[in-house]
Amino acid sequence: MTMWKRKLLDRLFSGSAYGAIAVMAFFLVIVIGPIFLKGIGAYLFEGTIDYRRMMLNQFNRGDEQVLDVEWAEVKQERKIIYDALFAFEKELDNMSSSRRRELKPAFKQTKEAVAILLGPEPGTPLPALPRRLYGQTRWERAELKAKDVLFEESWDYSGAQGKKVMTPRAPLFKGTALEPLFSKVEKDLESLMRPERTFYPQFLTDKSIDAHFFGGIGPEVMGTIYLALGAMLIAVPLGVIAAIYFQEYAKEGFVFSLLRSCVNTLAGVPSVVFGLFGLAFFINTLRVSPGKSVVAGALTLALLVLPTVIRAAEEAIASVPHTYKEAALSLGAGKWRTILTVILPAALPGILTGIVISMGRAAGETAPIIFTAAVSVGPIVLPSEIFTTSTPALSWNLYNICTEHEAVDEIRHVQYGMALTLVMIVLALNTLAIVLRAKVSRKLKG
Amino acid sequence: MNIETPKGKQPETHIEAKGFSIFYGTQEAVKRVDMSIPKGAVTAIIGPSGCGKSTFLRAVNRMNDLIPNCRAAGELLVDGLNVYDAGIDASVLRRRVGMVFQKPNPFPKSIYDNVAYGPRLHQSYAKRELDAVVEESLRGAALWDEVKDRLNKNALGLSGGQAQRLCLARALAVNPEILLMDEPTSALDPKSTSRIEELIVQLKGRYTIAIVTHNMQQAARISDVTAFFYEGVMVEFDATSQLFTRPKEKRTEDYITGRFG
Predict the structure, then answer these.
(1) How far apart are CA A116 and CA A139, in angstroms?
(2) What's the CATH fold of domain A218-445?
(3) pLDDT, tens digit, 9 for 90 and up, residues B69-127
(4) Nearest CB to B122: which of A332, A443, A445?
(5) How far is B209 from chain A (nearest CA, A)?
(6) How confident is the model at residue B5 (pLDDT cuts 50, 70, 90)?
(7) Is the full-model pTM beyond 0.90?
(8) Do B63 and A330 touch (CB under 8 A)?
(9) Which SS3 state, helix, strand or coil, does residue A118 take?
(10) B153 touches chain A (CB under 8 A)
């Protein structure tokens, strides 16, 4: 091969390598970018006066006196709205029946939209659902809900596709007592809502209120930690012992290859099958718990990550130089002593990496815990309850609140916040793996 | 056989092979060797690659057990006991028969922990006693002065020659009677090699030393007796001065004069 040809090939190879990295980075940005940008909104947002009232009532956070002053001011502002509603209702009684028929439905809609934007009207009986107790707690939601007050939404089906039409209500009520309401909401929403830059780090640890309308994702985070840690507590000793057996004790033969192929098959089983197996075996047969529980989920996840742990540990053990083993044996160490004092310490970096990466996987898996541990809403599980209680967990609840929640549109910030938190936990675990590995191998290399 | 010893009398035998063979599967790597390694002397085993000399050496502390399908026949006696007897515990045997390998193989632990590894295995020491054992062993391997200030540093930071002396100190720390050396200087530079050779000469007397080497000058310099192995057979075994000046066998002569090997 001529010189220039070799050089060209060389360039091509390194070029494609850089290309692959660039594509990966691009997709990482595409995937992680939006999750990060939107997810951060769960922690950092414009909170309204209703947010602060909710926090004070539900979580006992914030300065009550300051809030009382502010609330009095806002009530003054909101009085314009309620006065308009009250005056118009009176006015409605004195209208001609045709005019009344024209305006009454629109008025009812407006009134409902106002109740959603600002919370229940003072003096009316308090609604049962906590979500109805307060106005909009987040400024961007408030802006959206203000549109429902100002516009009537209808659909135009004249074309091939239905089209949303937003008709302003103000002209309809021109000259009536309701008119000031629209101008107030349109021009002075800020004084009605008092948005303030809010940092809400407790999103990570707070319980959720009324199915994630308010509060945080504490139970989910704790559940994920329980499940991932529990799975590792079970899988790591088993996996490392199995790896030692395969590498140091097993003799080639029928039993060896049977066990080997069992482990490899285990690695290829779909995770939902693990979930069903966990339900059938751990809960229905072994009865480790009366129903779904943290322990049953951790056992199932442990089974799922076991092949990964075994393989990582096996590779780590196999890469320990043979000379270490020889040296230990030549000093009179028995086989077990050699494994404990020389082979395992030298294999530790590889084993640790396997452990932490498996832990990331256990934290992210959804299907195995649906049948064995997960519940859509629940409090933070106490350590004493792990044998009896099911728990929310980030992976499953992310799916749940995105698809099966009664108001998926209302809690976008929680969905993204949960996704971000899950991604961050997995990312943090992987970073930990890298750091640990570097640290331990530096120690081994001197 | 006439071996020159300081006391001028015939030394007692420490390791004795009687019709000793080693098989890898069906292949006979060491063929019916008869040989008496004298106590307190340095015995060199020379021969071309693949002649079975390392296999023979590694039989003495049963390191061949690690190789699957490897089995022995005949007798190999250490202090009159056959090391391949069913009743022999290899770990106990290896305490008495230390080994230094071809490549320096310190553990990825501190220098101190490397030397203390063997003693810790066999009994529990007070800190002071263990310190004394470590110092004594390192002095025995002429390494103490170089490492006394960095005993807690990782042993993998040592140079090749230092690492090999550390391995020697590690072997000495369990207080063996016999030291097996499997080409201990083949991975070292000339200066480190000569230091190891000096050490071997110093250690002679206290320990019975058997050394496999490719380097005939080395065998001539440091050993009292030399065995020449060729294709698994022990061809000649005699006092070193005798073997290198007046070999009895044609093959020995050809090898030491460099006609093959």
Answers:
(1) 13
(2) MetI-like fold (1.10.3720)
(3) 899 999 999 998 999 998 889 999 999 999 999 999 999 999 999 999 999 998 888 99
(4) A332
(5) 15
(6) very low
(7) no
(8) yes
(9) helix
(10) yes
